[in-house]
Amino acid sequence: MAEFDRDLPDLPPELRWREWMRRIEAVLFASASPVPREDLTRVVGQGVSVDLLIADVSADLEGRSFEIAKVAEGWIFRTRVAYAPAIRAAADVGDQLMDLSEFDVAVLAAIAYHQPITRDGLKDIFGKEISRDLIGRLHARGLIGTGPRSPRRGAPYTFVTTEQFLVAFGMESLRDLPDREGLQDAGVVAVPAQDVSEG
What is the DSSP code (8-state) at residue 131? Predict the structure, then answer.
C-alpha cells in the first residue's frame, strides 16, 4: 500500500490546493462530531493553513443548504437553520431531537451560566428542588457532566456543561452564550429573586 501523500509535490499549486480542500471536505463530511485542527493537518501538506482551506471550502458552500461551523474546538458540517422546517417535514428526525421540556432547557441554561453549580445552587435560582431525574436526563443526553466537588459541607457534586452541549447548540465555546442581561431584558430568563452565589 502506497504511503499517503500529504504534500502532493507533483500537482501544480492550484490543483494541489483544490485537492487539499477536497480532503478537508471529505473528512468533515465523514465525521459525526467536530474534527479538531490536529486531525485536519494530517491530510494536508506541511505548513498549510487549515484556516485558509476551511475558509475556501466555506466559500464554495455559499448558497448551499449546509455549511461548515466552528464548534467546540473543531469544525463540523451542519444544515443551515433556514432548512430546519424542510427537514422536519420530510425526514424522520425524531431520534435526533433532544426532546427537552422548557424547564429542562431553563435548568441547562442555569448550569451553563453558573457552572460549576450544585443542585442546591440550582434550587436557589429556581426556588424549588431540582430532581435527580432531570439532572439524569441532561446527563444521559451528554449535555452536562460532573464538575469538581463543592468545597461546602458534605462536598456535593457540581455540574458543568460538556462539549456535546456546545455541539448541540452550535457554539464554539461558552463565550458564545447570549448575554444574561439581554436575555433577562427580553424576558427569556427570569431575574433570580436572590443572589445565586453558593457562598
Answer: P
